[in-house]
Amino acid sequence: MSATTGSTTTKQTTIEADPEVPTITMTREFDAPPERVFQAWVDPELFVQWIGPRSIDTRIEHWDARTGGSWSYTAEREDLHETFFGSFHEVRSPERLVQTFTWGGEPDSVSLETLRFEPLEGGRTRIVGVSVVESMELRDLILSSGMEVGVNEGYEKLDELLARG
Amino acid sequence: MSATTGSTTTKQTTIEADPEVPTITMTREFDAPPERVFQAWVDPELFVQWIGPRSIDTRIEHWDARTGGSWSYTAEREDLHETFFGSFHEVRSPERLVQTFTWGGEPDSVSLETLRFEPLEGGRTRIVGVSVVESMELRDLILSSGMEVGVNEGYEKLDELLARG
């Protein structure tokens, strides 16, 4: 699961399913400091430019990126119109972001997502995201949904956004 | 872990740790319909009357019980002053409530809590609450914290509140 863009070095996104608990852990490095990568997650004008696969457009419906706030957006292409919603449990800039996440089509399946932004040498950042759900079945269903396409293409777009400065 | 009060029949609260996943499941029945039990969870004036052990007073700091809202409260007695906070991920009255939960003293330990309100014969309700965290270690730490005292005494107080009508 590696991604190459024209403007940056090849970057590897690691997506791991824990064998013991129903979590998915994603790890990725970016060529920008934590403050800028964090900002791309919480500023809705930046977020819509990179989230998800290249084939969809994201439209923010609601966005209040503070501890105790919430969000919702729609992912759209010709044949698709999907809503997603959740809460910002904690926004601790620039190191930690804890959110809930639900696809509107399956509202009883909720993920709790914790994202850590770790500073690296040279003004770079490693993000480590852990999603947990209630059961192994749901975790495996999420993994088999093709999520890695959206993750990899999204992170490529985020590389491009960060390179534009 | 049973609880008896003067005014109601003996009720059993079941607190189960799943052997496979880091969840805690709590089950309890109440002598009131789902609408009234749900209301006792989302109305802050009712909530403070029953949440937690008998030895503490609960003071609401913030309360916005709607999908995408959030909450925080303080638990107080002479030697104690603890804050708790979280989000209302979904408020689906009167059947389902999904929240995040954090003790302020350990802000990196977050639970995702789903509460179902199941109607029973005779205008009664069974609640089934599932809390999930990222690791077995954190789940076992929560279980060993003496949480069952607050849960059992709280549910006794809720019985009394519901009996007062």
In a nutshell, what does this entry contain?
An eight-stranded antiparallel β-sheet of chain A has the order 3-4-10-9-8-7-6-5.
Task: Explain the overall architecture.
The structure is a homodimer of 165-residue chains. By secondary structure, chain A is α+β, with helices and mostly antiparallel strands. Chain A has a domain at 36-133: Alpha-D-Glucose-1,6-Bisphosphate, Chain A, domain 4. Chain A has four helices and ten strands. Chain A has helices spanning 34-42, 44-50, 136-143, 147-164; strands spanning 2-3, 11-12, 14-17, 23-30, 57-63, 69-77, 80-92, 96-103, 110-120, 124-132. Chain A has an eight-stranded antiparallel sheet. In chain A, a hairpin with a 5-residue loop joins strand 3 (14-17) and strand 4. The radius of gyration of chain A is 15 Å and the shape is globular. Chain A starts with a strand and ends with a helix. Mean pLDDT of chain A is 93; it is low at 1-8. At the A-B interface, strand 6, strand 7, strand 8 and strand 9 of A face strand 6, strand 7, strand 8 and strand 9 of B.
